[in-house]
Amino acid sequence: MNFNLGQILFVAILVFLVVYIFLLRTAHSDRVVYLACALVGILLVLAPDLSSDIAHTLGIGRGVDLIIYVFILAGLFYSVTITSELKRLQRQMTTLVRQLALDNPRQGTVPTVENAEQQAGTAPGIGDSAALDAGRGHQA
Amino acid sequence: MDPSSQVWVIIPAHNEEKMIGQVLADLLQYPYHILVVDDGSTDQTMQAALLYPVTVLRHVTNLGQGGALQTGIRYALSFPETRLLVTFDADGQHHASDLPRMLETCLEGHYDVVLGSRFMETGQALNMPVMKRIVLKLAIWFTRVNTGLRLSDTHNGLRVITAEAAHKIQITQNGMAHASEILAQMADHKMHYCEVPVTVSYSAYSLQKGQSLLNIINILWDMWIGYMR
User: Fold this and answer.
1) What is the pLDDT of residue B211?
2) pTM to 2 decimals?
3) At B172, phi and psi to the nearest 5?
4) What local confidence, expressed as pLDDT, does residue A96 receive?
5) Is residue A128 situated within a structural domain?
6) Helices (H), chain B
7) How many domains does chain A have?
8) What range does the domain containing A60 cover?
9) Does A100 reside within a domain?
10) Average pLDDT, consecutive stretches of 10 residues, N- to C-terminus, chain B (229 residues)
């Protein structure tokens, strides 16, 4: 089987992308990639024939085809950075929700004849200060 | 010191107002500390739990069972006298009567973790649907490949963890992938563990509350995302 230069290059880029996602990525390196994409874009606008020349060299039909392939790669890259960003947000939210819970432990009551009636009517809720006061202090 | 006061039973609960009372009544036959982590329930789970002499922590929004467990572990470990932590499901599928034997095994065998198993010889899985059995057997095989742990039951919510081991285990998977995450960390830290046969009873309620089989895809996805930088 014969592969042209473009096929080999794109497979290499995809493999690199996986390594990048799981091992190399930093927020800083993402920006470098975006900047590089922008510069290449400007270059291709200023020199439209360049994409065709590169496409021919790589064994890809037209310059437009090359641009579509690169665009798909850029889309993949973008979705990776967004997913990672969502993960970071989720971590922050977890920390926040957890700390709120730990700071506010509530203590349930031992059912007795006296409070059984009250419990049957209104269960202690969020605003119930007695339930809050009875909570054990959290030692961080 | 009374050893039973050094035990915390941690129950992550999400929309369990119907069942939580029954679960707590079952557990309160034993002298352990009980902690319910209300994971952002939209029903009256917290109010229902507060009718019993237990501690309740509330997540203001739903994080998932893994997130709730980690919150519970953090709280229980904030008391220096805590020796053993128990994880226990809120949907009524576990039996408090399995606990004394698990805790005893943990202390006597100096184990870091004791896992409940419904598939060991004297363990029981009552009214378990066939599909659930198949998926759980797949999970056991997956764990063997993934962590090297040879277990008879890998995704059972009933566990005993010593305080020292719990300090090392950091659950970062908020969703259901935490079960695999705990096992992976046990393997990483080369923890000393064993399995104890327990009974898991499936009811119409627990099956409806429990994991849908399609969730296996979500779990694998979460694990994959978890490795991302």
Assistant:
1) 67
2) 0.80
3) -105, -15
4) 97
5) no
6) 20-27, 45-49, 65-77, 99-108, 130-147, 163-168, 178-188, 204-209, 215-226
7) 1
8) 5-78
9) no
10) 79 95 95 96 95 96 96 96 95 94 94 92 79 84 85 90 95 89 93 93 77 74 78
Instruction: Give B224 to chain A, closest Cα distance, Å.
Output: 10
Domain boundaries, chain B: 3-226
Cross-chain Cβ contact A110/B53 below 8 Å: yes
Nearest in space to B199 (alpha carbons), one of B85, B68, B101: B101
Pick the CATH number of B3-226 from 3.40.50.300, 3.20.20.80, 3.40.718.10, 3.90.550.10: 3.90.550.10
Cβ within 8 Å, pair B50-A123: yes
Both tokens of residue B144?
Answer: 């063997």
Q: Is B14 within 8 Å of B39 (Cβ atoms)? A: yes
* The token pair that represents B21 in the structure block: 């009372």
User: ipTM value of the model?
Assistant: 0.87
Q: Domain for residue A51, yes or no?
A: yes
DSSP state of A20: I
The minimal CB distance from B228 to the residues A83, A101, A107 is found for A83
